[in-house]
Amino acid sequence: MKEKELRSQSGYIIFIAGLLLIIVPALTLLRVVPILALILGLAGLFMIIGLTVINPNEAAVATFFGDYEGTMKQNGLRWVNPLFRRRKISLRARNLNGQKLKVNDKMGNPIEIAAVVVWRVNDTAKALFEVDDYVKFVDIQSEAAVRHLASSYAYDNIEDEQASITLRDGSGKINEMLEKELNERITQAGVEVVEARISHLSYAPEIAGAMLQRQQATAVVAARKQIVEGAVGMVEMALARLSEKEIVHLDEERKAAMVSNLLVVLCGEKSVSPVVNTGTLYN
């Protein structure tokens, strides 16, 4: 079922006419022709019953004995067939602050994850007639989408395994995929997701300490690797410049000793104390 527009009339003139049909006969004809006064009063009341006030970003869905007649979205005081049943529905954007969920990620690690979803109704007919409670439907489907997303990707990259996408990805791809999956899940309820973002992400308390140590170890290894690569480059440059300038001629054994000493100096965590050799190089 798709939404269709229901044309309605401005209700101000009808409101005044209905009041006149109730008040004027009651003051003039009630004693003379009471039946006519009663009929005119009922007609005025019938006209007033058809009035509906529609606020901005609000709609009224009209049904007639179970048949969907259409949706009124014109703001202000509107009038339709008084026999229509009207149900108002908000078209404003709404926030869903999801609760923290405990899920296993792709690697089997228990994590805690939560998301914030901004959504609104874009098809009033589907929202009211395709699902039992569209607000609860969005809540449940949002939780299901977050659980599915969390179990489909790893929390973070393993030491030697560079995954293309992780839950901690800072590029926004995870949020984009969450928004896409949510729209696919709740489109049948006439709802669209304006924005969806991961609001909380962490390892579960029982493994948080171990994972923190792993992350620290990974950072240390990466830093040492970069230091070693830089030191090797500096040693290579030093040997090349010494050979190019012909400052000193070193055999292979002395080159090896020089490389060893330079690597110790460059890769050491603490500053070294130099030892000055006052004798010959070959002693």
TrEMBL record:
Signal peptide positions are none
Membrane in keyword set? yes
Top-rank lineage group of the source organism: Bacteria
Q: Where in the cell is it found?
A: Membrane
Pfam short name (any one): Band_7
Main localization is membrane
InterPro entries the UniProt entry points to:
Band_7, Band_7/SPFH_dom_sf
Put simply, this protein is called SPFH domain-containing protein
Source organism lineage? Bacteria, Pseudomonadati, Bacteroidota, Cytophagia, Cytophagales
